[in-house]
Structure prediction request, 107 residues.
Amino acid sequence: MVSPTVALGIELPKEVEEFINLIFWGYNPITEALPVFQDEQLMRLMMPIIFIAGKNDIMVDAVTAAQRLGKLIPNAEGHLLTLATVMGYEENASDILPPLPPQAALH
Prediction:
């Protein structure tokens, strides 16, 4: 397994490297098509929804998905990351996770 320190080009504590390796050891990537939910199914969701995806994701069209959620679920929060990497975020997570006012649902 490649050392996360080498992959990121930064110095990580040994415990962090061991934790990341443990995550990768149990990682089972999705290899089949992702399910697409019908509009009616999405509109029935009553719980808080937060959508966080990479703007340039190669598995899904995240921009279209965020726009669709914003149209169907007005109180959903959406965040499209532009600088995210698999193992770390260039964007500050605290800028993403606090609740947004309903009128700022998706951007």
User: Anything to note?
Assistant: The two ends are 37 Å apart (CA to CA).
